[in-house]
Amino acid sequence: MTKVRVALRRLLRTRDDGSMSIELVALAPVFVLLILFLIAVGRIALAGDAAQAAANAAAREASLSRTTAEAQQDANAAAQASMAQSGYSCNTLTVNIDDSGLNVPLGQVGTVSSTITCTLNLSDIALPGLPGSWTMERDASSPVDAYRERP
Asked: What is the pLDDT of residues 78-92, one digit of tens each?
């Protein structure tokens, strides 16, 4: 009777030798895509923070300028320097300044605002469905000293 039981157990036992390696081969591409997705999201988020810092720097420098021509020039230089310092480079970096706050009468507080548009290159991340570039736009504003000498 024991030989019959042993034979019956052998027949009923399921064999799963090698199933772990098949599961690993099937799931490996999913893990790779997940890691690439996390890298892309992280890069976009950090570049967005860098672009916001560049917008803040551009608005601040423009608010310290004496003329509208200086404001645009100083804002461009500040945004370029801020992006270079962050380690992120934009394919295109556009800085637009609303410098109408520089022309308010003495005693009134004006505001200078900046808008940064940065196109980030994502073509080095080989994730299906991910665009080759990502365009982000960030805004910031900075007050102009109410009692600063006007041109």
From this structure: 999 999 999 888 899
Residue 151 lies in a domain: no
Distance CA 62, CA 102 (A): 9
- C-alpha to C-alpha distance for 64 and 49, rounded to whole angstroms: 23
DSSP state letter for 103: G
Residue at 9 is within a domain: no
Strand partners, 94: 117
Summarised one tens digit per residue, pLDDT across range 27-66 is 888 898 899 889 889 989 999 999 999 999 999 999 998 8
Q: Count the helices and strands in the chain (H runs, E runs).
A: 3, 3
Q: Any bridge partners for residue 112, and if so which? A: 142
Structure token pair of residue 33: 């895509």
Work out the widest C-alpha separation in the chain, in whole angstroms. 110
- Whether residue 19 is contained in a domain is answered as no
